[in-house]
Design goal:
about 5% strand, two-stranded antiparallel ribbon, mainly alpha, elongated, 8 helices, about 140 residues
């Protein structure tokens, strides 16, 4: 199981901004993170929409964190790109229909297990702040 490439890149971008501590141009972010400029801009738009990053236009424009690194968790960044974390579709998709025979098995035991695992991962990711990762 992996996080998506987009989430991985979003984490790299936020970490790059946290390390820099100020405003950066998109091209510099792309160069420092190894993410193409086009993909960086796509991710930055999502991070701006989620209130994690600020965008400035014009000469001297660029991007910077909207909050202190100590206030941004890994979970927030991944959630902004992917949506809420869930190990199974039955936990995250409202229109998901389980193909198990609920009349035979009752409440799905796997659903409860997957929910517990998802909650554990979410809590762990929420507990890791970018400020903790800075040297």
């Amino acid at each position: 199981m992996h996080i998506t490439l987009e989430s991985d890149y979003a984490v790299r971008i936020v970490y790059c901004l946290a390390q820099n501590g100020g405003r950066m141009e998109a091209a510099a972010i792309a160069e420092q993170t190894g993410v193409t400029l086009r993909f960086s801009l796509k991710i930055l738009r999502k991070l701006v929409a989620g209130g994690l990053v600020k965008s400035y236009k014009g000469a001297g424009g660029g991007y910077e964190l909207a909050k202190a690194p100590d206030e941004i968790s890994l979970y927030e960044v991944i959630e902004q790109v992917e949506g809420p974390y869930a190990i199974s579709r039955c936990l995250s998709e409202e229109d998901y229909t389980c193909n198990r025979n609920r009349q035979t098995c009752g409440v799905c035991k796997f659903n409860r297990i997957y929910a517990e695992i998802s909650e554990t991962v979410t809590r762990r990711l929420e507990g890791i702040k970018f400020g903790d990762l800075l040297d």
